[in-house]
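Worked example 3 (structure in, sequence out).
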């Protein structure tokens, strides 16, 4: 059933929103030209995943590319996280929401909550049109730059302490220049779910 969910998501979500993978590496790119934390990479290992981003740059004079039906003059109404990855382990569905931030003082929870709510909506479509029901396990990663560790490259082995932050399990990752392993994210998430 889990592989069927991933395959269905690949079909129903517009392909221009799919995040590209190259040699098993998934890249999430920040579209804001003023951001200092611009890219995050994740090694997917041997997991079946679906990854996408709704963080499409708005064209000048146009509404939001994703939420065109919303009034963009209302602050933050169209907020969304930078990337989403959906995978499974032991028949549990895990949803990882990623948000790249230039500094820790910038607000990030509304974007992650909007991402969670959109995924819940997406899975309600799966239930209605494909008779697919499942419990979702949400985890969020706030990715922050760390100038002290910027010289180290390669793949990072990390354990995360997901903390409940206003109803979301969130962890901070301070080494966006290093490729993170999906195994580490899942191991930390499985301790909670």
């Amino acid at each position: 059933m889990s592989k069927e969910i991933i395959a269905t998501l690949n079909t129903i979500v517009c392909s221009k929103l799919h995040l590209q993978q190259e040699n098993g590496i998934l890249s999430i790119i920040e579209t804001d030209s003023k951001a200092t934390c611009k890219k995050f990479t994740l090694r997917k290992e041997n997991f079946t995943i679906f990854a996408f981003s709704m963080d499409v740059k708005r064209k000048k004079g146009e509404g939001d590319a994703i939420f065109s039906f919303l009034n963009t003059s209302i602050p933050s109404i169209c907020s969304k996280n930078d990337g989403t990855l959906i995978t499974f382990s032991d028949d549990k569905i895990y949803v990882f929401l990623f948000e790249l931030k230039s500094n820790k003082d910038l607000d990030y929870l509304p974007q992650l909550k909007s991402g969670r709510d959109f995924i819940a909506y997406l899975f309600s479509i799966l239930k209605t049109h494909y008779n697919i029901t499942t419990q979702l396990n949400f985890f969020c990663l706030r990715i922050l730059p760390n100038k002290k560790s910027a010289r180290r490259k390669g793949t990072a082995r990390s354990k995360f302490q997901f903390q409940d932050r206003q109803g979301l399990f969130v962890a901070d990752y301070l080494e966006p220049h290093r490729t993170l392993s999906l195994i580490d994210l899942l191991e930390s998430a499985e301790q909670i779910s």
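Notes: The first helix runs from residue 2 to 12. Residues 5 and 108 are 28 Å apart (CA to CA).
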